[in-house]
Design a protein that fits this description.
Blueprint: E1 3-5, E2 14-18, H1 26-32, E3 42-49, H2 52-57, H3 67-74, E4 81-86, H4 89-92, H5 96-107, E5 110-116, H6 129-139, E6 142-146, E7 150-151, E8 154-155, H7 158-166, H8 170-177, E9 183-188, H9 193-196, E10 202-206, E11 216-224, E12 231-238, E13 250-255, E14 266-276, H10 284-302
Parallel strand pairs: 1-4, 2-3, 2-5, 3-4, 5-6
Antiparallel strand pairs: 7-8, 9-10, 9-14, 10-13, 11-12, 11-14, 12-13
């Protein structure tokens, strides 16, 4: 795993790609690739944590990739370290020039900086790529501006991926990501009702900062973190309208035709296709019969 660190812990000097890079789609990768073959500095990706809009506007910004996931995805691209700049009100008050000098020059000793054409920085987003080019020339830092990648439906963006995922459209999500969307969670103690009705589930505790698909029932592939092979499964994501409508949202995974002791394990889940909406059933027997149909559908999708 590549290094995941703060600016003060980074290896220096750096050749850095600067941006949020949530999802690491093709547009992001086109920026990052520009700094991975240089000899000017250590190939570095620099992002902010938490997201600026969380600090400035109190918005909840769930992530397609958590920092540890992003680090794992960056390593095959040739990146050597992921630097997370702590974003707070003090950082937000820096002008574009102050940010460039204090963070990029003094702390990170940047020798080369790559950004997307729409990147903005500094107080009130005052700085753009032309600002960075001027600052770079003055300090002898090479600035690379990479044009936005577009397809037939518009520009490649994290927003498009999030919209598809929130709609439960895994095919579009995966196409835009260029890889399967996955999440992970620790198996925690549930109420055991699934086992009572013949469908034991692994109840997952997922990092609350991770963006999940829309509520519903899904055909998924899942595995223990340390195993190589994914196993077909069916997942309920969201509330439990039949069992306890007032309970918090849950993530429940049932491995198909498998009897596995998952207590205390961590699972990786790869949603493949949304089967149906959630529904409240009159009885637990009705729920069990529907899960049987869901399982058959999942098997036909996954095999």
């Amino acid at each position: 795993m590549i290094s995941l660190c703060s600016p003060l812990q980074a290896s220096l000097p750096t050749a850095l790609a600067l941006g949020s890079f949530d999802g690491l789609h093709a547009g992001h990768q086109s920026v990052i690739k520009r700094i991975t073959t240089t000899k000017l500095g250590i190939p570095t990706v620099v992002s902010f944590w938490p997201h600026p809009r969380e600090v400035l506007y109190g918005e909840s910004r769930l992530r397609l990739d958590l920092p540890s996931e992003k680090a794992a995805l960056l390593e095959p691209l040739g990146v050597k370290q992921l630097v997370l700049v702590p974003f707070d009100r003090l950082l937000a008050s820096l002008t574009a020039e102050e940010f460039f000098e204090q963070i990029l020059l003094n702390q990170l000793q940047a020798k080369q900086i790559a950004i997307g054409a729409n990147f903005r920085f500094g107080k009130d987003r005052e700085g753009d790529n032309s600002t960075l080019i001027k600052l770079g020339k003055r300090s002898n830092v090479e600035i690379i501006v990479v044009e936005i990648i577009e397809d037939s439906k518009g520009r490649m963006s994290s927003s498009r991926i999030r919209s598809a995922l929130k709609a439960g459209d895994l095919k579009t999500t995966n196409n835009l990501l260029g890889r399967p969307y996955v999440f992970r969670g620790a198996v925690v103690q549930g109420k055991g009702i699934g086992k009572e009705i013949g469908w034991p589930t692994a109840n997952l505790q997922v990092d609350a900062r991770k963006l999940l698909p829309s509520p519903g029932v899904y055909a998924v592939l899942a595995k223990e973190v340390n195993n190589e092979d994914f196993i077909p499964a069916v997942m309920n994501l969201g509330s439990q309208p039949t069992i306890d409508p007032r309970a918090p949202s849950a993530t429940e995974v049932h491995f198909l035709n498998q009897n596995i002791d998952l207590k205390g394990k961590e699972l990786i889940v790869k949603p493949v296709e949304r089967i149906r909406d959630q529904k409240k059933f009159p009885t637990l027997d009705d729920l069990s019969n529907q899960i049987k149909l869901d399982a058959k559908m999942a098997i036909s999708i996954l095999t």
